Amino acid sequence: MNNQLEFLKTVQPFNVLSEDVLQGVAELLQEVIYTKDTPIYHQEVTKMRGVDIIAEGEYEAFFYDSEHNKRVIEYHHKGYCYGGVSVLLNRKKSLRSVIAKKGTVVYFLHRRDFRALCQTNEEFFQFFTGEFGKRMINDEYAHFVKKPTTFEQNYIASDQLYSRRIESIEYRSLVSCAQDAPIYEVARWMAAQKVSCLFVKDAQNRIVGYVTDITLRDNVVAQQVNVSEPVSSIMDNPIVSISTEAFVYEAILLMFRTQTRYLLVEENGVYLGFISRNKLLSEQAQSPFMFIQSVRLARSVEELRRRWEKVPEIVYQLLSRGVKPEIVNQVITTVSDTIALKVIESVIDEMGTPPAKFAFIVLGSEGRKEQTLKTDQDNAIIYEDKANEQRELVREYFLAFAEQVSERLDKIGFSFCTGGYMAKNTKWTHSLSHWKRNYVSWMQEPDPDKVMKFSAFFDCRYIYGEAAIVDELKAFLDEELQKPLGRFLFHMANNAMQYEPPLTYFKNIKTFTVGSQEVFNIKKAMTPIVDLVRVYALQNRIFKTNTGERLEALLEKGVFKETEYQELMQSYYYLMSMRLKKQAVQIINDKTPPENFIDIRSLTKIEQVTLKEIFKTIANFQTNIKVKFTNALFG
């Protein structure tokens, strides 16, 4: 027994207990010896009698997937305590499957005695819940914990659509012609090669455009163009390509975003061939991408409204199948963008050709491609500078245009922005030069209120019109960010401090009462991550808008370490998954408008522990950014 007592003094968390308590625990331990490799626990099946403290040897712990493959394998050795989390947080069932290796010796402590220790010693108890919270930030670990008994579902198969790469798709060889080739020769060549898309090359052998059957119909026959003209005069643009390393779902979403039917397949800067949208969609007949195609084909506001009402069901299905929340965000964004494009095009058809080039941009969560199911309109219009005599005419057109777009989006389900950040607001439809002055004013003469109010405009994303206008604005911002910015970044950093993670002094989740519920606001819990990543992106002149993409760019620049990047990414998208699923359930099951309140009593102990760990991570990053930008301000 003395040996067991001395051993316990070296084991976390038993070493926090007093000598007297340890003496009592040592007397309760039972020694167990395994003479050969022995499967001792099966995930979600074996009921834990207590906890095992490894004295000698090794435990192999893992999850079995549906095909009985071992996943998230861990090896535990002398001094490791297995079973604490299972007893405390998992209905006394083993979280993982465990094999005790030959020659392993463990000291067993019954669960009633283990629980007694947890009830009388907070630090002892927090050791197990804290360790588990850190593990739950790992996506793969969390997947098996949250869906432990669905052996009939194939985890790998359910995620295959979102893990398959372009290199696995059979693509067609490139068929091309010179840009000075006559149109009739190009048509003959397409017929001979049996292709519906032919690429056009310039004198340097670079692909500069493409011709499709639709090109010949719309640009040649409908316009009665002389077929002896060079193909360059009627070819389509832009050229859109994708790497063989990209995922299939990324290719489909890219096609919808760029409204192209064909993608060039590229590897190490070399074009290998091309793929068509029909090819990809035909292989994904039951996927949400067919739904996106149905949105594209919708003809009326009412039809678009019915399509948008189906989105919560798709979101819930995707999350339930284990699809990553960042992918679900992309699906929502693509549907939303597609609807907006349909509306914009229909208004232009009715009002006639715009009197100036323009760009329709989206802001805030939509600009970051992080829309949820509780969403409103955040958009603006930037039009080219025109001569004085045309200014009023141009402005009158775009304000009327914005009014029509906004009204139709509202009918579809994208409610008016309560803060007025919409193109229909005269403040947010202006010329490019006016927008440049806006940004200079926000950056050169900042104050806390102004920075907080206009931070969403640094998440702007082009969705329709002349991309070159937005490119020029970003180039202008790039130049401005290289100038002395005074207190601008300090105020931006301070903005990331406005929403504190909902933790009490004792590291429990802080709630407030709404009706009969004890809730926290998950949107506000996520806001600090969005804000602090934005300020780091601006400081490093990164013009991506998506939080995950900004984090990746900051990692590549060495601003964040790998561990910091992983902590923020996993924390942010864990919260996003919880938020999306809650909203989908409210719409589908409760038939109520979605909200951002999470009732703490609706969460499992596992989810509560994970959230506490995430909130600690956010608080730590807030502290770091406060120190960094306060020091920078005062030198």
Automatic annotation (TrEMBL):
<dbReference type="Pfam" id="PF03445">
    <property type="entry name" value="DUF294"/>
</dbReference>
<dbReference type="InterPro" id="IPR014710">
    <property type="entry name" value="RmlC-like_jellyroll"/>
</dbReference>
<feature type="domain" description="CBS">
    <location>
        <begin position="170"/>
        <end position="229"/>
    </location>
</feature>
<feature type="domain" description="CBS">
    <location>
        <begin position="235"/>
        <end position="294"/>
    </location>
</feature>
<dbReference type="Pfam" id="PF10335">
    <property type="entry name" value="DUF294_C"/>
</dbReference>
<dbReference type="InterPro" id="IPR018821">
    <property type="entry name" value="DUF294_put_nucleoTrafse_sb-bd"/>
</dbReference>
<dbReference type="Pfam" id="PF00571">
    <property type="entry name" value="CBS"/>
</dbReference>
<dbReference type="InterPro" id="IPR005105">
    <property type="entry name" value="GlnD_Uridyltrans_N"/>
</dbReference>
<dbReference type="InterPro" id="IPR051257">
    <property type="entry name" value="Diverse_CBS-Domain"/>
</dbReference>
<dbReference type="InterPro" id="IPR046342">
    <property type="entry name" value="CBS_dom_sf"/>
</dbReference>
<dbReference type="InterPro" id="IPR000595">
    <property type="entry name" value="cNMP-bd_dom"/>
</dbReference>
<dbReference type="InterPro" id="IPR000644">
    <property type="entry name" value="CBS_dom"/>
</dbReference>
<feature type="domain" description="Cyclic nucleotide-binding">
    <location>
        <begin position="13"/>
        <end position="135"/>
    </location>
</feature>
<protein>
    <submittedName>
        <fullName>DUF294 nucleotidyltransferase-like domain-containing protein</fullName>
    </submittedName>
</protein>
<dbReference type="Pfam" id="PF00027">
    <property type="entry name" value="cNMP_binding"/>
</dbReference>
<dbReference type="InterPro" id="IPR018490">
    <property type="entry name" value="cNMP-bd_dom_sf"/>
</dbReference>
<keyword id="KW-0129">CBS domain</keyword>
